[in-house]
Records
---
Amino acid sequence: MSEASGPLQELPCPNLLHPPRSKRKSCLGSEATPTELLLQRSPRPKHPRLVSRAKENVFVLARRSRRRRRSASGVSWDHLPDELLLRIYFCLPLQDLLRVSAVCKRWQRLALDESLWHSVDLEGLTHTGPALQYVLKTRVQRLRCPRAFVEKLELPEPRSGSGALRLVELDLSSSIISTSALQSIVCGCSQLRYLSLEALQLSDTIVSCLAKNRDLLQLNLSGCSGFSAAALAELLGSCCSLEQLNMSWCSFSRNHVQSVVQNLSPGVTALNLSGYRDSLLLDDVKVLVERCPNIETLDLSDCTLLMADCFPVLKQLKKLHHLSLSRCYHIHLAALSDLGQTLPSLAYLDVFGFVQDSQLAALKKDMPRVGINARPFSSVARPTPASRVTASHPDQNMWSRRCRLRVRL
């Protein structure tokens, strides 16, 4: 051995690779410690991810974190809470709300929230079936869909709880819809308060399902057909809160008329029974007046079997405000002249068809407080009275209120 290697044999620490922690500093500080061993015990230098030298400067290129990258470009839509997105969706029209629902599952869930679909107007669509099926799934409460064309409608079996519809106001007047599709809608309803099925083909099943809606306030079945007198009696007997009823020009027999007057709710204030030329008699008027003394609006137009002897009976209606006797040809003009004194509360009288224009002046002179032929259209239980609809300014209200979501044509 050479003389230079001699001190290595006399190291004070016998195990340099694993010295005791208390003596590790002193061992490494020996003057005879080899350089290789010092490098093994020193901490390793940190290697940069990517180093480039340019103009003798060192730049370290590293990828930003996902969080910093999003915050630099603005707030992410994914970070917005549901409440804020719902508030934004509330300002969207119907078509844009449908587009939003196709973006992703979360947006679809929020776009179908029932708070956004409280009231919907689908008037104007060519094929209403798919849109109607979509809207009914949103638990809509006010639905305006007159003059609709519904070819096919598939709804889940109605059941109490989550599957039942929450419709409170429904207008399907003058629509083209099958009885099976209409039945699937009506049988899922139990909270209806305003309903118009004018000019639709019904069935006993549909009418019996309507009887579940005991809180009905206004019912318009004008021009309907396809149901029996027994089903009608069940419906009217169940709806004890009814205030307005329009049963004009239905395909009624004598039994149907009797079912109406004998089962009508005593709280009815507006009634339209026009169009029963050979079915409504004086005896029916007597039963009606005795059962419903609070009637304010009564339309008996085109009941041609009525004569002036019905006036003493109508006198019992102390609150009668509007009476329509248009085309009741057996009532003489002389009897009408005394009607103003017979009915002191009367404000409007319709006598279209059997009073000539030349006779109107004399009748108005005898009844100065009464408006003669001032209201040609009946508004009883109708969601949109015909008197408010014009070609240039169509009325889109439904029972005096407009739906929030509407179709833009």
---
Amino acid sequence: MEGGARLRAGGTKWDVRQKVWDHLEASGLADFPRPVHRRIPNFKGASHAATRLLGLQEFKAANTVKINPDAPQKNARFLTLEARKTLLVPTPRLRTGLFNKIVPPPGATKEILRICATSQGIKEYSVPVGLDGKARVDLVVVGSVAVSEKGWRIGKGEGYADMEYAMMVSMGAVQEDTPVVTIVHDCQVLDIAEELLDDHDLTVDYILTPTRTIKTDCKRPKPQGILWHKVSYEMLEKIPILKSLRYREKQAGKDVTLQDEHSDLANANTPAASNEKATAENTRPQTAIGSAQTGQHHVESDSFSPRLEESGMITTVYVGNIPHSVRVSELKCALREFQATPLRLNWQGAQHKAFLDYKDKATAESAVSSLKGLSLGGKTLRVELAKNQRSKGQGEINSQK
């Protein structure tokens, strides 16, 4: 595999990954964390390979660089900070957002910058960048398990790098000509059959190894945004910020039908499905949000009773930073879209805030997770459990702002 071994026809992406991981371990090239299987593998020489960034004109000209948080890119993160460029790092598994901006303390020494470039430093010296942070990324550095000299890339199989890039496109953070770089060992540079690539796969423009800087001149288009028909409900739950982007694109008139919804639509016209839907509509709880369109406060008797109120089980979520231009109907629509419909909504638009009542703490915490990163009226809302749970009797819904 040294020097770019050729994969045989018929190999799958998983075959490629397994060959690379096995070879790195067997040859003694693998570096901490071990084993490298199921990871973006760290390798001996990764730090030297990263120094090739300094020779790229695209790096020299970049103001903002996005680099993945994996171990092989640690020195790339340090070099970016040392060059006084803005460093953006994706949040782990995109659980709480898309980017964190690394902010070293004033007058940081090289030693401090090296700490900032580690996983611990990312936790200690970073601030989240919301969807409305107007991030403009000039250079993207991603990890790879394998890559071809044509620029075709295979990751570890979870799809996060591809999704991160697609989300950056959706946010307007990257353009068609934004260069993408990967840092790998020479043995990770392989022939990859084009038929293994999907239309959501990210390609690379430069490959940096301990011995070479490879310009791929890749002509295959990069993802043009999120392919919603390939996104599942499960993925939407795992990556809450996806919900915000989906809501935003839906408001802009784009087709955001999910993978699961396509199959639902295919079955929607059968008599059984129609009857099932009618039954569900008749038995669905009528919550405060659903009935507030008429301006009346409605309480669902089974899930919001005086006994529940008195027991103190109700948990309140605070929503702040609501722009003056946003109406309560827009918030209600977003809550329904994000499946975070509360039992009761207390709208205080003049104070740029609202309070949402949920039946218990677990439901409230789930709603907070779902609504993370939600943007309305050009601002990212602040969503958290209310610090002082309000007295339960003041939750009237006002349908007008």
---
Amino acid sequence: MGSTQLLTALVGLEVHAQIFSKFKVFSKVKALFGEKPNTLVSLLDAGFPGTLPVLNRRCLDAAIITGLALRGNISNYVTFDRKHYFYSDLPLGYQITQKTPIVTGGYVIVKDERGMGREIRIEGVHLEQDSGKSFELQGTKATLVDLNRCGVGLLEIVTKPDLRNGQEALTFVRELRRILQEIGVCTAKVAAGEMRVDANVSVHSPGGPPGTRVELKNVSGAKSLREAIDQEIDRQKELTTSGYAVSRETRSYSLRSRSTFVKRVKESLEDYRYLPEPDLPAILVPKSYVEHLRTRLPELPLNTLSRISKQYGIGTRQCQILVARPGAVQYFEKVCQGRKASLVASLVVYDVMKELNKQKIENFEDCPLPPERLGILVDAVAEGIVSVSNAKLVIPHLFASSKSVAQIIEENNWRQIDDPEEAERFCRSCFSNSPVFVEYLKGKREKLGTLLGLVKEKSNGRIPSGLVIESINKLQAEHKHI
């Protein structure tokens, strides 16, 4: 019996990301999600004899751009292979894929909660076709098959076993997702199955050989992936320290029991019988073409994070939130345009995002509040027309109606009082017959906060605190006899 703490885990991921393309990878059928079952199926997808694949150049470009973004090496000699296996949702009986990946090497930097970064190495990126989707009818032995997804362009991104636990895996997936979204290769909507992740988990003694690898498949959701990996690590550690062998098998994860379970035992290595794809010739990719695609590469998330932090002087946490949300940085920069960056960041991160979350809008490109309208509100704050706290109250109204910023401020009585005489008159009306004010005039200055709160409540925060304090001091001078 040993200690589970003496064992180290190795985790590698296989990420399958659907390529954002108008058509499938080897046919001229549209690649869409949510259509009626079996309405987007080519003869090739259905496995009809005599059909020939034709490579979609957009998918090839997506693979190269992904490799560049991951800092990998791009092969200038691209070939395809047939990987044989027999599933009901793969009528061909094989998948057109790449035994030799189009991209080798590269890495993704994963940062922990302390901001320390570590490189997670990429084994390779393969360009292939997706399979269809099977649905098992509960209570029966029947299985329904939808071939709409069959033939959609897919990137298989395989990592080295550089991850150590579920949290690192979750952080990696989120960072990779941001990269793929930023470069326009994949929208990466997990709910739509556009990004699916399998994990290979093993444990071993430090300095010893890697243990038996267990594959985790069909884990739905990134957070479930974290839980599944951690549960599997704990399971293997318990087995190993108790003297039992870890079986080589494929497992899945149950949300109900919060544990992994066996799907199938692997008694031997799979024999996929890779064969060169005879209907697709090898492709020579000139270095000049790779460099041309490099010029189309947008700024990557980590570079964006560093740039906006230095350029705008906003906090690291706000920068991270902006970079993590699709389109948020571009939205933020459109609003800034010479305005106070810290205020803009605060409104975008805490208030605009709050409204987007209510409406379940992920991408800032779909934000109902144009950056120009938010900029007008920021200008109103800068001009002293409205306070920051009341500007935050304006934002939900901007989402809900087409009324102007000025109209919303006036209708809700949020315009600030910046005339000292008007402020004094308002304070006198607030303090008339107020026991709190009488106590304050007797010298109990600890009541100042209560007085400020009283004025804020009566005025909806329209009067700057400085004017309130001036008014209180003036009134105190008039009542020295109290």
